[in-house]
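User: I'm writing a short report section on ligand binding and want a predicted complex to refer to. Could you take this sequence and phosphoenolpyruvate and write out the structure as tokens? A short remark afterwards would be nice.
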Amino acid sequence: MPRPRRTADISSTTTWSPDSWQDRPAAQQPDWPDAHALQSVLAELQGLPPLVFAGEARSLKASLAKAGEGKAFILQAGDCAEAFGDFSADSIRDKLKIILQMAVVLTYASGLPVVKVGRIAGQFAKPRTSPNERLGDKELPSFRGHAVNDNAFEEGSRRADPERLVRAYHQAAATLNLVRAFTKGGYADLTQLHTWNQEFVAASKQGRRYETIARQIDQALRFMTACGIDLSSDAAVHQVDFYTSHEALLLGYEQALTRQDSLTGDWYCCSAHMLWVGERTRQSDGAHVEFLSGVENPVACKLGPTATAEEVIALCDRLDPEKEPGRLTFITRMGSARLGEALPELLRAVEVSGRQVAWVCDPMHANTFTTASGLKTRRFDDILAEIKTFFAVHKQEGTSPGGVHLELTHEDVTECLGGAEQVLDDHLKDRYRALCDPRLNARQSLDLAFDIGEMLQTR
Ligand code: PEP
Ligand code: CO
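Assistant: Sure. The structure tokens for the complex follow:
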């Protein structure tokens, strides 16, 4: 028999089930025009294989518990929204490359294991501030991610189509298949570090700095081999554990991929290893929190600038009633100006509650603004400033900065301003390819990894 997860306060009298979220208000759900078609797609998804396995989610939980204790550092990164049109072996490989490069920089600087979690293989649904988008005198439903509708500003494109859920599932499956092949099949081997430096990065200052580290690691590996240490059979040298995550927004989809673990009888949402609830859907009595409260995966919750200590404790009670290390991660996204003032109270409230959560800094989502030319962007300096404040507050409070959550791409895009190579206002339109939020390009990402590495070193 499945072990019902004990949930506190509001639902203490009800038992969780994969569909118990349906009794609660669910924010940010698309208007599916054809309820019948949706039901038939969800039934199809329910019959398809799980994308991840319970045992993998449990290993991630153990690693996140280490990050909560300050003995590991989380690097959660990827696109704001994955695209149906950006789906090739090269693109998946290059997305991995930049995250692996950053992880090497962070590990080398900090001496800590880096927990690698992609916003990948399932990040296809977006919450929106406004249900409609206006362009000139035309108004259409907002783009909600490729699992729901298309980004083109045309009436037909913006119609929510449930068939897209099936396509999202298959793209996630194929992406995950390649991620597993690349990370377990030799590509992520520590002797391959040089091949991760992409051409347009290699010539830059950050690229050269990365090469220096890669050479030093080579040398250390050669030294160990010369000392008679047999590295050839050590999986840690040849393979990488890489986990997937996305916002658990479309609850019908997530429910359809929720399965009972044959070993423990527990429920796992098998669409990704880790799932998070977003800033717009984190109501502790809402449908999203209800759904995540009952699956055994590690779960995360975004906390925006208005989050109060009471809300945070209510979320802890709902999502982590058993006070299990590694179960709950809080991803703060307060903005560089607000974080210093807002974070201490939340850290103290969680400390007093006797829990160990992992605190992760998302320095992207509250530092977004629109330029005069109408493009959404973020300043590299604001991103860096929010991370610096995050480290400073944790130091002051005696708690651990558990990791960072970034929107980035391997591509040479011009979506965020600044960085060592100075993307300026006028450059933004040159290679602005974001479907949703602006991402750091590969050089900016590597640049940031060196800065975070220094913060970890002097921690
Ligand atoms: C996101 O991570 O893309 C997102 C929408 O974040 P938030 O819920 O923090 O606004
Ligand atoms: Co985003």
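A remark for your report: Residues 89-110 form the longest helix (22 residues). The pocket of cobalt (II) ion (ligand 2) is lined by residues 80, 365, 407, 436-437 (CB under 6 Å).
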